[in-house]
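Handoff note, outgoing to incoming analyst
You'll be picking up this chain. Sequence as last confirmed:
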Amino acid sequence: MGRIEKTVFISYRRTNLPWALAVSQNLSRYGYDVFLDFNGIASGDFESVILGNIRARAHFLVLLTPSALERCGEAGDWLRREIETALELKRNIVPVILEGFEFHTPSIAGQLTGTLAMLRNYNGLRVPAEYFDEAMERLHSKFLNVPLDAVLHPASQSSIRVVQVEQAATRAAPPVPKNELIAQEHFENGFNAIDPEQRVRLFTEAIRLKPDFPEAFLFRAIERGEMGELDGALQDIEEAIQLRPTYADAFYLRGGARFDVGDIEGAIQDYNEAIRLKPDNAGPFEDRGAARARKGDFEGAIQDYNQSIRIDPSNASAFLKRSYVRSAQGDLEGTIRDCSEALRLRPDIADAFEGRAHARAAQGDLEGAIQDFNDSIRLNPNSAEAFNGRGLALAKKGDREGALHDYSEAIGLEPEFARAFYNRGNARKGNGDLDGAIQDYSEAIHRQPDFSAAFLGRGDLLANRALGSPLDDFASFPLDDLERGIEDLKEAARLDPDRPASLQDFQKSLEELARLIREGRGNYESPAVSG
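Most recent structure output, in case you need it:
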Protein backbone atom coordinates (compact mmCIF):
# COMPACT_ATOMS: atom_id res chain seq x y z
CA MET A 1 0.00 0.00 0.00
CA GLY A 2 1.43 3.35 -1.01
CA ARG A 3 1.74 6.35 1.27
CA ILE A 4 1.19 10.09 0.87
CA GLU A 5 4.52 11.88 0.68
CA LYS A 6 5.09 15.62 1.10
CA THR A 7 8.68 15.97 -0.17
CA VAL A 8 9.05 17.96 -3.38
CA PHE A 9 11.90 18.85 -5.76
CA ILE A 10 11.34 21.83 -8.09
CA SER A 11 13.26 21.74 -11.38
CA TYR A 12 13.33 24.97 -13.38
CA ARG A 13 15.35 27.20 -15.68
CA ARG A 14 16.78 30.18 -13.78
CA THR A 15 14.98 32.55 -16.15
CA ASN A 16 11.77 31.33 -14.50
CA LEU A 17 12.91 31.85 -10.89
CA PRO A 18 9.85 33.98 -9.92
CA TRP A 19 7.54 31.10 -10.89
CA ALA A 20 9.68 28.57 -9.03
CA LEU A 21 9.79 30.75 -5.92
CA ALA A 22 6.01 31.36 -5.99
CA VAL A 23 5.32 27.62 -6.25
CA SER A 24 7.83 26.82 -3.49
CA GLN A 25 6.41 29.43 -1.12
CA ASN A 26 2.87 28.19 -1.71
CA LEU A 27 3.74 24.54 -1.10
CA SER A 28 5.72 25.40 2.03
CA ARG A 29 2.68 27.14 3.50
CA TYR A 30 0.78 23.85 3.11
CA GLY A 31 3.42 21.86 4.97
CA TYR A 32 5.41 20.47 2.05
CA ASP A 33 9.18 19.94 2.42
CA VAL A 34 10.38 21.65 -0.76
CA PHE A 35 13.84 21.78 -2.28
CA LEU A 36 14.50 24.72 -4.62
CA ASP A 37 17.97 25.80 -5.71
CA PHE A 38 17.22 29.44 -4.93
CA ASN A 39 20.62 31.06 -4.32
CA GLY A 40 22.61 28.99 -6.79
CA ILE A 41 24.56 26.07 -5.36
CA ALA A 42 28.35 26.16 -5.66
CA SER A 43 29.59 24.21 -8.66
CA GLY A 44 31.61 21.79 -6.55
CA ASP A 45 28.50 20.68 -4.61
CA PHE A 46 26.02 20.97 -7.43
CA GLU A 47 25.88 17.39 -8.65
CA SER A 48 25.78 15.68 -5.26
CA VAL A 49 23.22 18.11 -3.81
CA ILE A 50 20.91 18.26 -6.84
CA LEU A 51 20.87 14.58 -7.73
CA GLY A 52 20.89 13.60 -4.07
CA ASN A 53 17.76 15.63 -3.40
CA ILE A 54 15.94 14.12 -6.37
CA ARG A 55 16.68 10.69 -4.85
CA ALA A 56 15.48 11.85 -1.44
CA ARG A 57 12.14 13.33 -2.56
CA ALA A 58 8.94 11.72 -3.80
CA HIS A 59 7.55 14.44 -6.04
CA PHE A 60 9.35 16.10 -8.94
CA LEU A 61 7.87 19.32 -10.38
CA VAL A 62 9.38 20.58 -13.62
CA LEU A 63 8.43 24.10 -14.70
CA LEU A 64 7.89 24.18 -18.47
CA THR A 65 7.95 27.39 -20.51
CA PRO A 66 8.87 27.99 -24.16
CA SER A 67 12.39 28.99 -23.09
CA ALA A 68 12.90 26.27 -20.48
CA LEU A 69 13.94 23.49 -22.84
CA GLU A 70 16.02 25.72 -25.12
CA ARG A 71 19.40 24.35 -23.98
CA CYS A 72 18.35 20.76 -23.29
CA GLY A 73 20.19 19.68 -26.44
CA GLU A 74 23.53 20.91 -25.06
CA ALA A 75 26.01 18.49 -23.58
CA GLY A 76 25.60 18.27 -19.80
CA ASP A 77 22.56 20.57 -19.56
CA TRP A 78 21.41 20.36 -15.94
CA LEU A 79 17.68 20.70 -16.51
CA ARG A 80 17.84 17.70 -18.81
CA ARG A 81 19.89 15.72 -16.27
CA GLU A 82 17.42 16.52 -13.51
CA ILE A 83 14.45 15.34 -15.60
CA GLU A 84 16.25 12.17 -16.74
CA THR A 85 17.20 11.35 -13.14
CA ALA A 86 13.57 11.74 -11.98
CA LEU A 87 12.39 9.53 -14.84
CA GLU A 88 14.97 6.87 -13.99
CA LEU A 89 14.00 6.91 -10.29
CA LYS A 90 10.28 6.80 -11.14
CA ARG A 91 9.40 9.87 -9.11
CA ASN A 92 5.90 11.38 -9.24
CA ILE A 93 6.64 13.75 -12.09
CA VAL A 94 4.32 16.73 -12.51
CA PRO A 95 4.95 18.96 -15.54
CA VAL A 96 3.92 22.47 -14.46
CA ILE A 97 2.89 24.01 -17.77
CA LEU A 98 3.23 27.78 -17.91
CA GLU A 99 2.21 30.41 -20.48
CA GLY A 100 2.99 29.57 -24.10
CA PHE A 101 4.26 26.02 -23.57
CA GLU A 102 2.83 23.32 -25.86
CA PHE A 103 4.40 19.91 -26.29
CA HIS A 104 3.54 19.86 -30.01
CA THR A 105 5.31 23.14 -30.83
CA PRO A 106 8.16 22.20 -33.25
CA SER A 107 10.86 24.08 -31.31
CA ILE A 108 9.80 22.32 -28.10
CA ALA A 109 9.22 18.88 -29.65
CA GLY A 110 12.73 19.11 -31.15
CA GLN A 111 14.23 19.28 -27.64
CA LEU A 112 12.26 16.33 -26.27
CA THR A 113 14.61 13.68 -27.61
CA GLY A 114 15.80 10.40 -26.10
CA THR A 115 14.60 9.75 -22.55
CA LEU A 116 13.15 13.27 -22.40
CA ALA A 117 10.46 12.29 -24.91
CA MET A 118 8.69 10.40 -22.09
CA LEU A 119 7.86 13.72 -20.43
CA ARG A 120 4.94 14.29 -22.81
CA ASN A 121 3.24 11.16 -21.39
CA TYR A 122 2.72 12.71 -17.94
CA ASN A 123 -0.38 14.66 -16.95
CA GLY A 124 0.56 18.30 -16.68
CA LEU A 125 -0.88 21.15 -14.61
CA ARG A 126 -1.49 24.44 -16.42
CA VAL A 127 -0.79 27.44 -14.19
CA PRO A 128 -1.94 30.85 -15.50
CA ALA A 129 -0.74 33.88 -13.54
CA GLU A 130 -4.30 35.22 -13.15
CA TYR A 131 -5.45 31.98 -11.50
CA PHE A 132 -2.30 31.01 -9.67
CA ASP A 133 -3.96 30.21 -6.32
CA GLU A 134 -6.62 28.05 -7.95
CA ALA A 135 -3.96 26.11 -9.84
CA MET A 136 -1.96 25.58 -6.65
CA GLU A 137 -5.05 24.16 -4.97
CA ARG A 138 -5.33 21.59 -7.76
CA LEU A 139 -1.63 20.80 -7.35
CA HIS A 140 -2.07 20.02 -3.60
CA SER A 141 -5.35 18.16 -3.84
CA LYS A 142 -4.92 16.19 -7.05
CA PHE A 143 -1.34 15.95 -8.32
CA LEU A 144 0.55 15.61 -5.03
CA ASN A 145 -2.13 13.92 -2.94
CA VAL A 146 -1.46 10.46 -4.34
CA PRO A 147 -0.20 7.30 -2.59
CA LEU A 148 3.30 6.39 -3.74
CA ASP A 149 5.53 3.33 -3.53
CA ALA A 150 8.66 5.28 -4.41
CA VAL A 151 11.93 4.15 -2.85
CA LEU A 152 13.48 7.25 -1.30
CA HIS A 153 17.18 7.53 -0.49
CA PRO A 154 18.17 9.68 2.50
CA ALA A 155 20.22 12.73 1.60
CA SER A 156 23.73 13.13 2.98
CA GLN A 157 24.33 15.44 5.94
CA SER A 158 26.10 17.95 3.69
CA SER A 159 23.10 17.96 1.31
CA ILE A 160 20.71 18.42 4.23
CA ARG A 161 22.67 21.48 5.37
CA VAL A 162 22.45 22.96 1.85
CA VAL A 163 18.71 22.27 1.80
CA GLN A 164 18.26 24.09 5.11
CA VAL A 165 20.10 27.15 3.78
CA GLU A 166 18.05 27.21 0.57
CA GLN A 167 14.75 26.74 2.44
CA ALA A 168 15.62 29.57 4.82
CA ALA A 169 16.35 31.80 1.82
CA THR A 170 13.00 31.03 0.17
CA ARG A 171 11.14 31.68 3.44
CA ALA A 172 12.92 35.02 3.82
CA ALA A 173 12.23 36.09 0.22
CA PRO A 174 9.25 38.44 -0.19
CA PRO A 175 6.13 36.93 -1.77
CA VAL A 176 6.16 37.01 -5.56
CA PRO A 177 3.66 39.66 -6.74
CA LYS A 178 1.20 38.76 -9.47
CA ASN A 179 2.54 41.40 -11.87
CA GLU A 180 5.93 39.66 -11.75
CA LEU A 181 4.32 36.41 -12.88
CA ILE A 182 2.47 38.30 -15.62
CA ALA A 183 5.82 39.79 -16.67
CA GLN A 184 7.12 36.23 -16.95
CA GLU A 185 4.18 35.37 -19.21
CA HIS A 186 4.94 38.34 -21.49
CA PHE A 187 8.58 37.25 -21.63
CA GLU A 188 7.68 33.68 -22.59
CA ASN A 189 5.18 34.88 -25.20
CA GLY A 190 7.93 37.08 -26.60
CA PHE A 191 10.29 34.13 -26.69
CA ASN A 192 7.64 32.13 -28.55
CA ALA A 193 6.63 34.88 -31.01
CA ILE A 194 7.78 34.83 -34.63
CA ASP A 195 7.49 38.49 -35.64
CA PRO A 196 10.57 40.47 -34.39
CA GLU A 197 8.59 43.62 -33.67
CA GLN A 198 6.07 41.66 -31.64
CA ARG A 199 8.90 40.04 -29.70
CA VAL A 200 10.31 43.48 -28.88
CA ARG A 201 6.87 44.70 -27.75
CA LEU A 202 6.38 41.71 -25.45
CA PHE A 203 9.85 41.96 -23.93
CA THR A 204 9.27 45.69 -23.41
CA GLU A 205 6.00 44.98 -21.61
CA ALA A 206 7.75 42.42 -19.43
CA ILE A 207 10.34 45.08 -18.52
CA ARG A 208 7.60 47.60 -17.74
CA LEU A 209 6.01 45.18 -15.28
CA LYS A 210 9.35 44.03 -13.86
CA PRO A 211 12.08 46.67 -14.43
CA ASP A 212 14.77 44.42 -12.90
CA PHE A 213 14.29 41.61 -15.44
CA PRO A 214 17.77 40.97 -16.95
CA GLU A 215 16.63 38.17 -19.27
CA ALA A 216 14.01 40.45 -20.84
CA PHE A 217 16.65 43.13 -21.48
CA LEU A 218 19.02 40.57 -23.00
CA PHE A 219 16.43 39.01 -25.30
CA ARG A 220 15.23 42.45 -26.38
CA ALA A 221 18.87 43.26 -27.15
CA ILE A 222 19.06 40.21 -29.42
CA GLU A 223 15.99 41.32 -31.35
CA ARG A 224 17.18 44.92 -31.61
CA GLY A 225 20.54 43.74 -32.92
CA GLU A 226 18.82 41.62 -35.58
CA MET A 227 16.72 44.66 -36.57
CA GLY A 228 19.82 46.85 -36.93
CA GLU A 229 19.22 48.91 -33.76
CA LEU A 230 22.78 48.39 -32.52
CA ASP A 231 22.85 51.29 -30.04
CA GLY A 232 19.60 50.15 -28.43
CA ALA A 233 20.87 46.57 -28.32
CA LEU A 234 24.07 47.58 -26.55
CA GLN A 235 22.11 49.69 -24.06
CA ASP A 236 19.94 46.67 -23.24
CA ILE A 237 22.98 44.44 -22.77
CA GLU A 238 24.57 47.01 -20.46
CA GLU A 239 21.34 47.13 -18.44
CA ALA A 240 21.26 43.34 -18.15
CA ILE A 241 24.86 43.33 -16.86
CA GLN A 242 24.09 46.11 -14.40
CA LEU A 243 21.15 44.11 -13.06
CA ARG A 244 23.15 40.87 -12.90
CA PRO A 245 26.94 41.33 -12.92
CA THR A 246 27.38 37.53 -13.08
CA TYR A 247 25.25 37.15 -16.23
CA ALA A 248 27.60 35.12 -18.45
CA ASP A 249 25.26 35.17 -21.45
CA ALA A 250 25.15 38.98 -21.38
CA PHE A 251 28.94 39.26 -21.49
CA TYR A 252 28.95 36.69 -24.30
CA LEU A 253 26.42 38.68 -26.31
CA ARG A 254 28.23 41.96 -25.74
CA GLY A 255 31.43 40.30 -26.90
CA GLY A 256 29.70 39.42 -30.16
CA ALA A 257 28.41 42.99 -30.56
CA ARG A 258 31.89 44.41 -29.98
CA PHE A 259 33.40 41.95 -32.44
CA ASP A 260 30.88 43.03 -35.09
CA VAL A 261 31.90 46.69 -34.80
CA GLY A 262 35.63 45.87 -34.89
CA ASP A 263 36.41 46.23 -31.16
CA ILE A 264 38.40 43.01 -31.01
CA GLU A 265 40.11 43.72 -27.67
CA GLY A 266 36.78 44.60 -26.05
CA ALA A 267 35.25 41.44 -27.49
CA ILE A 268 38.04 39.27 -26.07
CA GLN A 269 37.61 40.87 -22.63
CA ASP A 270 33.89 40.05 -22.66
CA TYR A 271 34.51 36.50 -23.86
CA ASN A 272 37.07 36.10 -21.04
CA GLU A 273 34.45 37.14 -18.50
CA ALA A 274 31.79 34.88 -20.02
CA ILE A 275 34.23 31.96 -19.80
CA ARG A 276 35.18 32.81 -16.21
CA LEU A 277 31.54 32.87 -15.18
CA LYS A 278 30.50 29.82 -17.19
CA PRO A 279 33.54 27.70 -18.13
CA ASP A 280 31.49 24.79 -19.47
CA ASN A 281 29.92 26.81 -22.31
CA ALA A 282 31.50 26.03 -25.68
CA GLY A 283 30.23 29.18 -27.43
CA PRO A 284 32.49 31.83 -25.85
CA PHE A 285 35.58 29.69 -26.50
CA GLU A 286 34.58 29.37 -30.16
CA ASP A 287 33.96 33.09 -30.57
CA ARG A 288 37.09 34.09 -28.66
CA GLY A 289 38.94 31.85 -31.10
CA ALA A 290 37.51 33.90 -33.97
CA ALA A 291 38.55 37.14 -32.25
CA ARG A 292 42.07 35.85 -31.68
CA ALA A 293 42.29 34.72 -35.29
CA ARG A 294 41.24 38.22 -36.40
CA LYS A 295 44.19 39.58 -34.38
CA GLY A 296 46.55 37.10 -36.04
CA ASP A 297 46.96 35.05 -32.84
CA PHE A 298 46.52 31.74 -34.62
CA GLU A 299 47.93 29.59 -31.82
CA GLY A 300 45.55 31.17 -29.29
CA ALA A 301 42.68 30.69 -31.72
CA ILE A 302 43.51 26.99 -32.19
CA GLN A 303 43.60 26.52 -28.40
CA ASP A 304 40.17 28.11 -28.03
CA TYR A 305 38.66 26.02 -30.82
CA ASN A 306 40.17 22.90 -29.24
CA GLN A 307 38.53 23.76 -25.93
CA SER A 308 35.17 24.49 -27.59
CA ILE A 309 35.31 21.14 -29.37
CA ARG A 310 36.27 19.36 -26.13
CA ILE A 311 33.15 20.77 -24.45
CA ASP A 312 30.88 20.11 -27.43
CA PRO A 313 32.36 17.59 -29.91
CA SER A 314 29.19 17.81 -32.04
CA ASN A 315 29.64 21.50 -32.91
CA ALA A 316 30.42 21.57 -36.64
CA SER A 317 30.95 25.33 -36.58
CA ALA A 318 34.02 25.06 -34.31
CA PHE A 319 35.63 22.50 -36.64
CA LEU A 320 34.92 24.75 -39.64
CA LYS A 321 36.40 27.84 -37.96
CA ARG A 322 39.46 25.89 -36.86
CA SER A 323 39.91 24.83 -40.48
CA TYR A 324 40.15 28.52 -41.48
CA VAL A 325 43.00 29.07 -39.04
CA ARG A 326 44.79 25.94 -40.16
CA SER A 327 44.45 27.08 -43.75
CA ALA A 328 45.98 30.45 -42.84
CA GLN A 329 48.87 28.56 -41.20
CA GLY A 330 49.40 26.52 -44.37
CA ASP A 331 48.31 23.29 -42.68
CA LEU A 332 46.49 21.75 -45.65
CA GLU A 333 46.05 18.29 -44.10
CA GLY A 334 44.63 19.83 -40.92
CA THR A 335 42.31 21.98 -43.00
CA ILE A 336 40.99 18.96 -44.87
CA ARG A 337 40.52 16.96 -41.64
CA ASP A 338 38.54 19.75 -39.96
CA CYS A 339 36.37 20.43 -43.01
CA SER A 340 35.68 16.71 -43.34
CA GLU A 341 34.69 16.45 -39.67
CA ALA A 342 32.40 19.48 -40.00
CA LEU A 343 30.75 17.77 -42.99
CA ARG A 344 30.40 14.50 -41.11
CA LEU A 345 28.50 16.37 -38.41
CA ARG A 346 26.56 18.54 -40.85
CA PRO A 347 26.66 17.47 -44.51
CA ASP A 348 24.95 20.67 -45.67
CA ILE A 349 27.74 23.20 -44.91
CA ALA A 350 28.69 24.77 -48.23
CA ASP A 351 31.66 26.62 -46.70
CA ALA A 352 33.18 23.34 -45.49
CA PHE A 353 33.08 21.91 -49.02
CA GLU A 354 34.62 25.12 -50.32
CA GLY A 355 37.37 25.19 -47.68
CA ARG A 356 38.27 21.57 -48.38
CA ALA A 357 38.21 22.28 -52.11
CA HIS A 358 40.78 25.08 -51.78
CA ALA A 359 43.04 22.85 -49.67
CA ARG A 360 42.75 19.97 -52.13
CA ALA A 361 43.52 22.27 -55.05
CA ALA A 362 46.62 23.54 -53.22
CA GLN A 363 47.72 19.91 -52.82
CA GLY A 364 47.23 19.30 -56.53
CA ASP A 365 44.12 17.13 -56.11
CA LEU A 366 42.19 18.96 -58.84
CA GLU A 367 39.53 16.27 -59.29
CA GLY A 368 38.76 16.23 -55.57
CA ALA A 369 38.77 20.02 -55.48
CA ILE A 370 36.35 20.31 -58.41
CA GLN A 371 34.00 17.77 -56.83
CA ASP A 372 34.01 19.75 -53.57
CA PHE A 373 33.42 23.02 -55.42
CA ASN A 374 30.51 21.34 -57.21
CA ASP A 375 28.97 20.36 -53.86
CA SER A 376 29.58 23.82 -52.43
CA ILE A 377 27.84 25.44 -55.41
CA ARG A 378 25.00 22.92 -55.22
CA LEU A 379 24.37 23.96 -51.62
CA ASN A 380 25.02 27.66 -52.19
CA PRO A 381 24.68 28.67 -55.85
CA ASN A 382 25.28 32.31 -54.88
CA SER A 383 28.88 31.83 -53.74
CA ALA A 384 31.15 33.88 -56.01
CA GLU A 385 34.21 32.47 -54.18
CA ALA A 386 33.21 28.89 -55.03
CA PHE A 387 32.78 29.68 -58.73
CA ASN A 388 36.10 31.53 -58.79
CA GLY A 389 37.84 28.64 -57.03
CA ARG A 390 36.38 26.07 -59.40
CA GLY A 391 37.44 28.26 -62.31
CA LEU A 392 41.04 28.20 -61.10
CA ALA A 393 40.94 24.40 -60.73
CA LEU A 394 39.46 24.00 -64.22
CA ALA A 395 42.09 26.33 -65.67
CA LYS A 396 44.87 24.23 -64.13
CA LYS A 397 43.31 21.19 -65.81
CA GLY A 398 43.39 23.03 -69.14
CA ASP A 399 39.64 23.62 -69.37
CA ARG A 400 39.79 27.32 -70.29
CA GLU A 401 36.19 27.53 -71.47
CA GLY A 402 34.92 26.04 -68.22
CA ALA A 403 37.16 28.42 -66.30
CA LEU A 404 35.89 31.43 -68.29
CA HIS A 405 32.31 30.41 -67.56
CA ASP A 406 32.97 30.13 -63.81
CA TYR A 407 34.84 33.44 -63.60
CA SER A 408 31.96 35.13 -65.41
CA GLU A 409 29.49 33.52 -62.98
CA ALA A 410 31.55 34.81 -60.05
CA ILE A 411 31.55 38.33 -61.51
CA GLY A 412 27.81 38.18 -62.14
CA LEU A 413 27.25 37.27 -58.50
CA GLU A 414 29.77 39.77 -57.14
CA PRO A 415 30.48 42.59 -59.63
CA GLU A 416 33.20 44.09 -57.38
CA PHE A 417 35.18 40.82 -57.23
CA ALA A 418 38.60 42.02 -58.42
CA ARG A 419 40.30 38.60 -58.33
CA ALA A 420 37.63 37.08 -60.57
CA PHE A 421 38.27 39.78 -63.19
CA TYR A 422 42.01 39.14 -62.90
CA ASN A 423 41.57 35.37 -63.28
CA ARG A 424 39.27 35.86 -66.28
CA GLY A 425 41.90 38.16 -67.75
CA ASN A 426 44.47 35.38 -67.47
CA ALA A 427 42.06 32.90 -69.11
CA ARG A 428 41.33 35.31 -71.98
CA LYS A 429 45.04 35.90 -72.44
CA GLY A 430 45.53 32.13 -72.72
CA ASN A 431 42.80 32.02 -75.38
CA GLY A 432 44.48 34.80 -77.37
CA ASP A 433 41.79 37.38 -76.55
CA LEU A 434 44.26 40.12 -75.63
CA ASP A 435 41.80 43.01 -75.78
CA GLY A 436 39.42 41.12 -73.47
CA ALA A 437 42.28 40.29 -71.13
CA ILE A 438 43.43 43.92 -70.96
CA GLN A 439 39.85 45.00 -70.25
CA ASP A 440 39.55 42.48 -67.38
CA TYR A 441 42.88 43.51 -65.87
CA SER A 442 41.67 47.13 -66.01
CA GLU A 443 38.42 46.18 -64.25
CA ALA A 444 40.41 44.40 -61.55
CA ILE A 445 42.63 47.47 -61.03
CA HIS A 446 39.60 49.76 -60.92
CA ARG A 447 38.15 47.69 -58.08
CA GLN A 448 41.45 47.09 -56.28
CA PRO A 449 43.97 49.84 -57.00
CA ASP A 450 46.78 48.04 -55.13
CA PHE A 451 46.47 44.83 -57.18
CA SER A 452 50.10 44.36 -58.21
CA ALA A 453 49.52 41.22 -60.30
CA ALA A 454 46.81 42.95 -62.36
CA PHE A 455 49.16 45.85 -63.16
CA LEU A 456 51.84 43.34 -64.13
CA GLY A 457 49.43 41.37 -66.34
CA ARG A 458 48.12 44.44 -68.13
CA GLY A 459 51.57 46.03 -68.45
CA ASP A 460 53.07 42.87 -69.92
CA LEU A 461 50.25 42.55 -72.48
CA LEU A 462 50.36 46.20 -73.52
CA ALA A 463 54.13 46.16 -73.90
CA ASN A 464 54.20 42.89 -75.82
CA ARG A 465 51.36 44.03 -78.07
CA ALA A 466 53.40 47.13 -78.91
CA LEU A 467 56.52 45.08 -79.56
CA GLY A 468 54.57 42.95 -82.02
CA SER A 469 54.14 45.97 -84.30
CA PRO A 470 56.54 46.75 -87.20
CA LEU A 471 59.46 48.93 -86.12
CA ASP A 472 60.21 50.47 -89.56
CA ASP A 473 57.54 53.14 -89.27
CA PHE A 474 57.91 55.24 -86.15
CA ALA A 475 54.83 57.27 -86.97
CA SER A 476 52.51 54.24 -86.78
CA PHE A 477 54.25 52.48 -83.90
CA PRO A 478 51.83 52.17 -80.91
CA LEU A 479 54.00 54.17 -78.55
CA ASP A 480 51.01 54.83 -76.26
CA ASP A 481 50.62 51.11 -75.60
CA LEU A 482 54.31 50.79 -74.86
CA GLU A 483 54.35 53.75 -72.47
CA ARG A 484 51.16 52.55 -70.71
CA GLY A 485 52.73 49.12 -70.35
CA ILE A 486 55.88 50.66 -68.83
CA GLU A 487 53.80 52.67 -66.36
CA ASP A 488 51.91 49.53 -65.34
CA LEU A 489 55.14 47.62 -64.82
CA LYS A 490 56.50 50.47 -62.69
CA GLU A 491 53.34 50.46 -60.57
CA ALA A 492 53.55 46.69 -60.18
CA ALA A 493 57.16 47.11 -58.99
CA ARG A 494 56.16 49.82 -56.53
CA LEU A 495 53.38 47.66 -55.08
CA ASP A 496 55.54 44.52 -55.03
CA PRO A 497 59.24 45.43 -54.66
CA ASP A 498 60.22 41.75 -54.43
CA ARG A 499 59.38 40.90 -58.03
CA PRO A 500 62.05 38.96 -60.04
CA ALA A 501 65.09 40.83 -61.37
CA SER A 502 64.30 39.62 -64.92
CA LEU A 503 61.11 41.70 -64.90
CA GLN A 504 63.08 44.73 -63.76
CA ASP A 505 65.51 44.22 -66.65
CA PHE A 506 62.57 43.89 -69.06
CA GLN A 507 61.12 47.17 -67.81
CA LYS A 508 64.47 48.98 -68.27
CA SER A 509 64.78 47.66 -71.82
CA LEU A 510 61.28 48.89 -72.62
CA GLU A 511 62.08 52.32 -71.22
CA GLU A 512 65.15 52.50 -73.45
CA LEU A 513 63.12 51.44 -76.49
CA ALA A 514 60.49 54.08 -75.79
CA ARG A 515 63.20 56.73 -75.49
CA LEU A 516 64.72 55.77 -78.83
CA ILE A 517 61.38 55.78 -80.58
CA ARG A 518 60.53 59.17 -79.13
CA GLU A 519 63.82 60.53 -80.40
CA GLY A 520 63.16 59.01 -83.81
CA ARG A 521 66.49 57.27 -83.97
CA GLY A 522 67.17 54.63 -86.58
CA ASN A 523 68.22 51.05 -86.41
CA TYR A 524 68.28 49.16 -83.12
CA GLU A 525 67.42 45.75 -81.85
CA SER A 526 64.25 45.35 -79.85
CA PRO A 527 64.61 43.83 -76.36
CA ALA A 528 63.61 40.27 -75.64
CA VAL A 529 59.91 39.79 -74.95
CA SER A 530 58.90 38.56 -71.49
CA GLY A 531 57.65 35.01 -71.13
